[in-house]
Amino acid sequence: MVQVTKKNKETTLSLLKRFSRKIKKSGNVLKFKKTRFKQRPESDLRKKRGALVRIKIAQKTKKLYKLGKITPYNTATTNTKG
């Protein structure tokens, strides 16, 4: 917790500036902002399904490349109706 006491003949504005500087240095604001929209970790099943999708896409791309329907430079676009 950050505490700031007013010094002799210190204006309120300078007190606020000093307070905000201490807050920034303490890192409390960053901690709060990081955890504000915290997402829960991805489940194991979802990770496995994602891996299977990536494997299927890789197999499909490899097959189309072997058939000559795509070149190594346009592997991102697998439109075969061309």
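the 2nd protein, sequnce then structure:
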Amino acid sequence: MKKHLKWIIPVVVLVLVVCVFGYLKLFAWNPERQKLAQINARTISVAQFGRELEKIPSPYKEMLQEEPKQFLDQLVLQEILLQEAERQGVKSDANAKPEEKDSSQIQNLLKKEVIDNVKVNKEEIEILYKEHQSKMGKKRLDEVAPVLEELIRDAKGKEKVEEYITSLREKAKVEIDESRLKGVTGHQKREAAAG
């Protein structure tokens, strides 16, 4: 019995060490499984954050590494908009390249929900014309009305898009792991310095 205990105890300890190390490697140390942000039911992992950051050209990448929260906020906002587009059944354009599908889907959502609903009336055009008539030379209102209408539509559209995005952001359940975010960016800075 004592002979068996001499080799059973080290084997059990070794198995436990291997199991703990395996768990840590697969789950705790795996960037794919490390949650950086939770947006409603979806997660942005440390690995996903790193992949998205790698797509950014220098010197912008270095700036974002200095301010990682700003970049993560952009990713969170993108995820919120994609979730809303999916909820509403909004698709990307059929001819969009694979790397442009998300942007296309978001643009289509904003067009459907905001841009297509922006109205410009004649009074707004006339007011803008009167305010800037001296800059238009001798052109009559009917000549510049289409351009003025587009300017007003763009300005109103930007404002409405910001309001829409803010309302979606307020409704979303977002959790960010600030300590992990600091750790991720510190690791990336060390990698950049070494590479």
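The chain has eight helices and three strands. The chain has one domain: 7-89+115-194.
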